[in-house]
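Practice problem: ACP phosphodiesterase
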Amino acid sequence: MAYNIVTIAGSLRKDSFSLKIANALAKLAPASLKLEVITPAGISFFNQDLEGAPPADWLSFREKIQKSDGVIFVTPEYNRAIPGVLKNAIDVASRPYGKSSFNDKPVGIIANSPGPLGGVSAAKTLQNILPGISGPIMQQPEAYLNGVGDAFDADGNLTKESLKPVLQAYIDAFAVHVAKHHG
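Answer key — structure tokens:
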């Protein structure tokens, strides 16, 4: 049996590095994990006034998270934080209060940047947001991927050899994290 993992690439850009990393991670995943890669595209803005009759896109996103066995966030860094669309998706799925769709879901965080810092601030933002609305966040290994601008070919395949063992170690550790939580 494979655990179903929702992997949220936190960018809307068609050729985003986060989406490419999430897809590469799905290819590297052990047989015990089945990764479904999604983006926050199509999730309307959170507005508490709509909670009584939530929009269909909110319900669909919440259900996808609820049916999963875990969640991996793959986020770029925008202005020392996560993209607004990713924060919006988290807000939508974490509501209504006390009924977060992320409850009890093992969580992984991978940050990335074409620059030298690897999205550390974005990862720290998620580490601040998620406690209290999610399950256990995998602590080790941490993944801050820098210099990802030249890591993929024109078809989106991972070609930067130095990244493969990092992603492999991460997804293998996440498989253990998920199994431990569901065991």
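Discussion: The chain is about 35% helix and 15% strand. Students who identified this feature from the tokens alone can consider the problem solved.
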